[in-house]
Design a protein that fits this description.
By secondary structure, the protein is α+β, with helices and mostly antiparallel strands. 28% of the residues lie in helices and 35% in strands. 37% of the residues are buried.
Length: 279
């Protein structure tokens, strides 16, 4: 027969052991979450248009009507779209990736906007002018049309910044039959809240630049070839993206763009914004 003292000791031992087990279980769960980002990835059955501003800091129209139009589109669509500023015109924030994107889109003048990797050009461009209202309306119409289309394919991405590296995992899912293949998945690193020079801006030395194109997975603009996908197929992968010293790690964002390639053309398929954890 157990004495009251024995019962109390047993109870204390059970409580103590339970506390240790619970603590360890919690740590194990958190470690598993951290180490298996792909397991947490859920690909949304949702279309988000990709709005790109091809721009430059020494371009006066980029800081005047181009700046205003980018802000207006961002305010209008918010989280329903994905944004990127490709600085391809000298001199600040220019990268080879941004220049490659602008060259691919055959950008002849700055700023030029593209929605879903297709330029928005008013008829006035043929005479060296720009009809800003027409280009804004065309951008809105193309973006809204894509949002309401059937979702064929989409991707998701998550990343962790730790020990001077960015480790990312992505996943792509086909919701309908994919008729144009192969499929490419590109992950881009962008930076927000960069205060610097912008010609044509109301405060030219205190302009706050957003969605600045910094880097890409594997250093490749078009990303990775993941082959053909049938309806319901999912495929994932991972990569390491080096961190540059001049990036503000608290202001970085990840986006993932899915393309379908035919011959030499990369057709935009979908875009999403990812989660980035800075440890």
């Amino acid at each position: 027969m157990k004495t009251p003292i024995t019962n109390m000791l047993t109870l204390l031992l059970v409580v103590a052991l339970s506390a240790c087990v619970n603590d360890l279980s919690s740590e194990d769960v958190e470690a598993k979450k951290s180490d298996n980002l792909e397991d947490q990835l859920e690909v949304e059955e949702r279309n988000r248009p990709w709005i790109v501003k091809h721009t430059g800091t020494n371009c006066s129209p980029c800081g005047s009507w181009g700046w205003g139009m980018f802000s207006e589109l961002s305010d209008r669509f918010g989280e329903d779209a994905v944004y990127l500023a490709a600085y391809a015109y000298p001199e600040d924030y220019v990268t080879d990736l941004a220049k490659e994107l602008s060259n691919y889109n055959d950008v002849q003048a700055f700023p030029t906007f593209s929605v879903n990797n297709r330029n928005i050009l008013s008829e006035a461009r043929s005479t060296g002018q720009v009809n800003v209202r027409e280009e804004r309306d065309l951008a809105i119409m193309r973006a809204e049309g894509f949002i309401n289309d059937s979702v064929i394919i989409n991707s998701a991405v998550q990343g962790v910044i730790q020990d001077g590296k960015m480790r990312i995992r992505y996943k792509t899912k086909a919701f309908l039959e994919v008729t144009i293949t192969p499929v490419y998945v590109a992950v881009y690193v962008l930076e927000n809240s960069i205060t610097g020079h912008q010609l044509g801006h109301p405060t030219p030395d205190k302009a706050v630049h957003k969605h600045v194109f910094r880097a890409a997975m594997d250093g490749q603009l078009w990303g990775r070839n993941i082959g053909a996908l049938r309806e319901g197929d999912e495929i994932g992968g991972e990569a390491i993206i080096p961190i540059e010293e001049d990036w503000n790690l608290d202001n970085l964002e990840l986006i993932v763009v899915t393309y379908q390639k035919h011959a030499d053309t990369y057709y935009f398929a979908n875009a999403s914004k990812g989660q980035l954890i800075n440890k």
